[in-house]
Specification:
The protein is 43% helix and 14% strand. The chain is of the alpha/beta class. Strands 4-3-9-10 form a 4-stranded parallel β-sheet, sandwiched between helices. Helix 2 packs across helix 3, helix 11 packs antiparallel against helix 12 and helix 12 runs antiparallel to helix 13. About 5% of the residues have low confidence.
């Protein structure tokens, strides 16, 4: 049975969906004002695997996955002003770039991808409900002039504030810094509606023109798309407080129902033992990483660590991921996967690993054993090899891996050509012109010339051709006197 570590209870628990015929998951998506970085890649890939596995367990038609887009925010406004663009022009551009990166990483599209600006009526309705119930208040006449019209959530009214993060409100209050004339009644109160400032985008509301705070956007979009009470809410660990804590307070106060059963958070990506983030300026965009590494290598690198653990970025770890994927595709090279038999024991162990809080490193270990068995039987039991290969592809697919034809992996585009996504295993055509400008036809001619040189025992010529190809980043692999394949280094 699937068990998930629930950050709300701080323990691993059996996952029991509210409705097995409609398993519902919401994940906080991107604030679209810049290119996505590797931390965003981890969120995308981790919850893509959760989505894939839930579909495997409950059936694709019984899983609803919602990942929002924040398309109105202080940072978005600042970036649009900096670039001299309209908000909509900026956000459309970076939504397209985000989708391009997600597609390259093999991330399935969510069932719904709501945008904050398209749910303004639901956001305003939820704020009004909170005001009517006494959980929110509008800044009064004695408050700062630039805060007139702001609406705040009254944290003191919500008894269970801090239940997700484990933070104590008295400790938070003692450490808070608040301006003397601030419109808040309490330093912990947070904004639900911001009054309009000159030149900013705004919407009409009962409290005057303005725009929503970040936290209320997700509460409104999640309940609109999935209902007041749903199964799983996910996001990066940095969102646990205050964003997700505030979502719980808003949503449960507004609806009177429990908001979410299971809260999942993936760990940070770290560089030199420090969290990778835009605010620290120590981040790599997905686009920059894909200039050096194949997108499937990046995906494997992310999944080779448990989603709750820190992920330490380094070229060494990405090189190891590349070597691991090379091992899998070598096992699949030259075989024809055929469904049926032989792989059940591996599937049972793979599923046991995934049922244990989506333990992808253990699941990958099972794939390695399966690849080793394929290599052991190669040449002695072709039928068993083909069936085991089918199982390797099937199980790899649960992680979004091993979807390409091996020849496409070995001989297809180099990482410097930003990828539009993982090609299908059924793809048989390769790029006619490789990234270096070295034609594929020339590679084949040189391999044939080298095969002839080896046949004539002209080892000097054989070595010269190998060196010429190696200078282009092409590795030759000899399977026998008359059998040579090639791949990118």
């Amino acid at each position: 049975m699937l068990q998930i570590h629930n950050n709300l209870t701080k323990r691993k628990e059996p996952f029991v969906p509210i409705d097995p015929k409609n398993v519902r998951m919401y994940v906080c998506g991107m604030t679209v004002y810049d290119l996505c970085h590797l931390g965003h890649a981890r969120v995308l890939v981790v919850f893509d695997v959760v989505y894939r596995y839930l579909r495997r367990v409950y059936g694709a038609e019984h899983v609803t996955y919602v990942r929002n887009v924040t398309d109105i925010d202080d940072k978005i406004i600042a970036r649009a002003n900096e670039r001299g663009e309209k908000i909509e022009q900026l956000t459309e551009h970076f939504i397209a770039e985000m989708t391009r990166d997600a597609d390259a990483l093999g991330v399935l599209h969510p069932g719904e991808e709501p945008r904050a600006t398209r749910h303004m009526s639901e956001i305003i309705d939820m704020i009004q409900t909170l005001v009517d119930k006494g959980y929110a208040y509008q800044a009064g006449k004695g408050d700062r002039a630039d805060s007139l019209g702001d609406v705040y959530y009254d944290v003191s009214r919500f008894e269970h504030y801090g239940q997700l993060s484990g933070k104590n409100t008295d400790d938070l209050r003692a450490g808070a810094r608040v301006e003397v004339d601030v419109a808040k009644q309490d330093p912990l109160d947070f904004v639900l509606w911001k009054s309009a400032k000159p030149g900013e985008p705004c919407w009409e509301s009962p409290w005057g023109k303005g725009r929503p705070g970040w936290h209320i956007e997700c509460s409104a979009m999640a309940t609109c798309c999935l209902g007041n009470h749903f199964d799983i809410h996910g996001g990066g660990l940095d969102l646990q407080f205050p964003h997700h804590e505030n979502e719980i307070a808003q949503s449960e106060a507004a609806t009177g129902e429990k908001f979410v059963n299971v809260w999942m958070h993936n760990g940070f990506v770290r560089l030199d033992e420090e969290k990778m983030s835009k605010s620290l300026g120590n981040f790599f965009t997905i686009r920059e990483v894909l200039e050096k590494y194949d997108a499937e290598v990046v995906r494997f690198f992310i999944l080779n660590s448990h989603y709750r653990s820190p992920l330490n970025y380094s070229d060494k770890h990405l090189d190891e991921a590349k070597a691991a994927l090379t091992t899998f595709y070598h096992a699949l090279r030259g075989v024809t996967p055929v469904e049926g038999g032989n792989g059940q024991a591996y599937a049972v162990r793979f599923e046991a690993a995934m049922d244990d809080d989506f333990n992808t490193p253990e699941a990958i270990a099972v794939l390695f054993e399966l690849a080793r068995e394929i290599n052991r039987l190669r040449g002695s039991d072709a039928q068993a090899v083909d069936r085991l290969a089918a199982e390797l592809v099937r199980l790899g697919g649960c992680l979004g891996l091993l979807a390409r034809d091996p020849e496409v992996f070995f001989q297809g585009r180099r990482p410097t050509e930003i990828q539009a996504g993982c090609a299908s295993r059924t793809t048989t055509t390769h790029n006619a012109e490789v990234a270096s400008g070295f034609p594929e036809a020339k590679i084949k001619i040189l391999i044939e010339a080298r095969t002839e040189a080896r046949k004539n025992k002209d080892w000097a010529e054989s070595d010269r051709i190998r060196d010429e190809l190696a200078a282009q980043g092409i590795v030759l692999e000899d399977g026998g006197p008359q059998s040579t394949t090639w791949r990118w280094e």
